User: Fold this.
Amino acid sequence: MSSGQDPPTHGTTLWVPEIMTHIGAYLTPPDLRSAVCVCQHWNQTYIPLLWHHINDSLYSWPDLALRISPTPDSNNEQQQWEETDRIRRTFEKYGCHIRQLFLSKRELLAIVSAVAMVAGAKGGLSSCTQLQDLEVSLVNIISPKEQAESYRIMALTQEERAAEREQAQAMGMPSVLSPVLEGVFEARIGPFQSVTKLIKDWESNQHFWLLVRQNRQGIRSLSMSWSTMGSCRIADHNFLYETLGGMKQLRVLKNEMVVLELNRLLRSVPMLEKYSTSSHLIGSGWMALNGDGGGGGGGGGTQSMNLKALEIRGPMESDKVGELLERFPDLDRLNLGRLITSDTETTTATRAGPLTGGGGESGQDNTAMVEQGRLKSRLKVLEIDLPSLPRSTVNVLLDAIRLVPHLTTLSIKELDMETATAIGRSCEFLETFSLWIKVEPNPATREQPGTIKLNALNVILQSCSRLKRADASWCMIAADDLLDNQPAWICQNLELLRCRIVGFYYLTNEEQETIQMIKGPDFVGCQESDYERRVLQFANRRQEQYKAVYERIAGLRRLVTLDLASGYRYQPFLSLRQRIETRRNVNALEVSLSVGLEQLSTLGCLEEFGFEGLESGVGENELGWMVKSWPRLKVVRGLQGRALDSVATRQRKAQLRQSLRERKASIQQQQQQHQQHQPARTIFHIQELGSVVGSYLTPPQLLSCVQVSSLWHSVFSPSLWHTIDDNLYSWKHYLEKHDSEEEVETGGHDTRWVMDIFAKYGNHIRELTISWKVLISAAYEGGACTKLVSLRIYALFYETKREKLEKRGIPVGRSYAVKPGPFLSPIFEGGTVLKETWSNGRSERQQRIDWLVVQQYWLLLRQNLGLRSLDLRRMPQWMGGLAQEAFFYETVGMLDRLVDVAMDDFEVDLNVLFNAQPKLLRFRTFLNLNNRHTLTTLFSGLRLVECKGYMSPLSMATLLERLPGLEEIRLYSFLPERSSLPATTLSAQVEELKAFIDSASSSPSNLQTFFLERTKQGAAAEILKVFLPWWPNLKRLSVTGLTREIALTAIRSCPVLEHVSESKDPTSIFPDHQTQTDHNIPTLLLKSCPQLRVINGIKLTIDIRSDPHAAKGWVCPQLTTLRCQIIGLPRLTEQERNALDTQNLTSLSLSLPASFKDNLGFTGEEEEPEAIESRTKIQAFQRLHHQIYNQLAQLTNLRRLVLGFEFRDFHRLFLYSQGLNLVWNYDDPVPGTLEFSLASGLDRLATLKNLEEFGFEGLNHRIGRLEIEWMAVNWPRLRLLRGVSDDKTSGRAYAKQKQLLREHMQSLRPDIAFE
Assistant:
């Protein structure tokens, strides 16, 4: 098949762009290269994916770079030049698709930089100028020519090398490639370095920085490697800060090139989120952190709200960690590679523990920060190099854990019992614990090297209930500490466990024979000797140990990785006798069915199992059991041959590996035979593709999909349960009777059923909307709803049938105090968090349930720390019974990813709320925001404020001043609901507002969207005339009752205005049902706002009668939505319309022969005066229609064109022909509108190929079958037609005409809907 043809079989699934893109994400570059050759469509789709990520260390790039590298042979220069030119042209053609670029070859760096400079000089977005990730590392990249030169220099004597260096320095360096690099670099030649290498480093640095500057508008990640510098260094640091400061999108910076002042860097790049450096933060480096003029650890530094990850691989003073966390309160990840004491030089520093100074002074400073409340760290990930911690500084280490109470990931290098106890006590939210150490333990003792103590990991497993990953291969747990009388492991969600379980009783061959003899039939009635009795005790104790250990592990049902002996071996220097003796001390776990391995059949999720180095006892039977009991098993560690293994051991492992492969192959073959009639497996076995397909399906469709097969069930269940709203579909039918006796007795959809399905599928739920109290209980008690992203409470006013029956016996209107019941958590005890509330008409049983549901709701919030959206706007009053507002602020502060909060009548202090959650982006409330909610400090993170109450103009101005990053305000009204302001009071408020804005700030507001739902007495116009000049960046303006004054002020003050709309649509455009607005407001916008994209206000009118030039000079070609009325057009009578048809025919007479004119009846007689007047009217009709059509035809990006709306008289009822129902009457259509007939010029709108919605409801149009056919052909993207829907008035003539047009359009275009 040629590349220009499209394969006929690919037009169904692989033609969806989203699915093709997701498939491409799983293909390797060689696969993508084959895919672009299939057809033209695949070429256009996969070329951007093929060039999206370029790494010159992979695939054929190294060979390509080698061919263009200089060689000692000068005969290849022409070939190298041709190859270089070919690569350059390739980058010019496809470089526009590159987003991630990783370079390690100087030659390719030079080519890419040159292409980017040429493209940048041309302007616009072109080749190699749209990079997002850039990393250049020239480590160990030596061309053949450079290698030969290096060998030559090494052969020189010391005097000859010195003379050559002096000659090179006297010659100087070549000129810079760009004037911006003048004086930036400084070159130094090394003792064994050639001049050629020095010049290469000089040029590579220039190419790197020129490439960076050409892409600085889009780079998000930049890696500056020391290897790129070579023999050059940056002499002008201002150039570096200026270049980085121009990267507005920079989020990740890796710096191995130069020592940067952290404070100045963050001022230059305020949006930086991750910074990694190998430089130090001691002495002057720490002073740089505090500020320009600060020293030591004093204040003066600026907090960075955007920095999320910080990696310091160089030395840092340990007593500054607490202050570092104070400087960066939103830091999520901190990696400290080397901590030193403040009184130790860097060159001779010995490593110290975290936060450990020479004495206890540093710990006292950090403790003071915690006690004084200065430190509010939100750190989640902490990695510390902790070697050989002295015993005298253990208390300081425990203080380090106190600094980060919300820690979820902890990685350290040492662990002892006191540290483990502190971790279990303080790190309540710990999910990942890892211990990284690369030393072999001494198996001759029960102690491990350093401070890694036996059973320290056991303490963590017994204390951290949220733990999911325990990666501590070098930690040992004694089997005796896992017996029944020891505390249980409470980490039921554990997914990874790497440790060593030792201390099992070991039986020699002689002892095993003795036990078999005792248990044999020949020993019945014989007296046991002391030796036999002792051996039997050992055997019983050993059996108890294995039972306890396997029961502990079997309880971890969610384990995915279980490694019980990561690479464990006995020390090679021990003699054979010493190894036998140490087995009674170490004696690791035996993996065998004879000791209880079958208890681990509960680990159905296990994918990786390791027992390397154990006296495993694994044989054919054990492997067969693993394959059957662990269907997801993919990796088995312990069967690979090692260097120290004997020949017999290697042969045995080889046989076991072969047996394992055969068993797995047999099972896979059975599965393939079972699923060979399921072709969907070829696509839907990729979970992400299933998610993409599932996002296009409705819940009923997804419910059908999950019932197809087990594969489809696993693929589509996450999509089905992603969003749950118990107010939709069949939820209400089940939940209103879940507590009835009938459901409980029959075991139907009762409360237990609700709890079980949430426990089973709750881990898939991301967005949860709750209207029934039982779902709060199910979501909390099930324990699986821990990954919610959005949680919304919707009223909770629904009552079950049982609650309705109980309510009948309670007097109406009587309120009861909800009595406190049992507490579900210690955080509620003492009566300081929850308080008694009043409940109207609820039984005692319902009150007890309410008391529990309130607690379950707040615990559910604390169980989902990943929430991003929290909606409390319809929370019942009995759920807001908090005695302490501090509890609410503390709970919200724990939700570190929360960006959206909405609340109803819950009174909050905005200052405390925004301080508790500084990452908040959107805040919605039903409260009236007045002077009581004035902000006292700046909060730059908030982007949206929505107030469904009223807000005084001065309060809104104060809000805008305190929220400099605010982009959108949605407001109900400037005035209270039932209040009116005298003119004098309004004038005083306007003057006060002007004075405040003039004195507030010289910089304009960043507001981009303003929405005002309700206006009164012209107050909005006066207030907005003051506000709009303060909003030069405003793009969206939505106001109910838009006036001419507001429109003119917006045109003058908001040059980037894109969206103008009415906040609410009227009930009808019938004159008695809408307030009169100024005419031709859309005309002003269309003639003055070149960036306008949306005009949405069906009450707004373009009146041709009042302004004959309204249909001229429109300057907004990007308009996508035009929704208004066009009125005031002259319309023709029926006689004039017939004359128009005759005129259209007469216009042909000029080009017809005379004989043909006679046959048609054309004569040369003069027209009557009445005919001249009629012709003049017809010409005016045509001229105005054509003007409007021509202006509309220029709006080629138009997607919505709606010029009509509901036109019923809601003050009159009409009995339609059958006399069965009453409907609202349709009056005569709106006069003076466009005809939309082909005779009037509708065909001029054929340029609107992007039109998706067309509306003409209520207009006096002349659309017939011909016009419908024209629309179906010329508007291919049309999906919605307004004006021919069924209005339940079948007895009227226009209703029948609508029905005919609707049926005709359905026959032509079934994909079009009608409203």
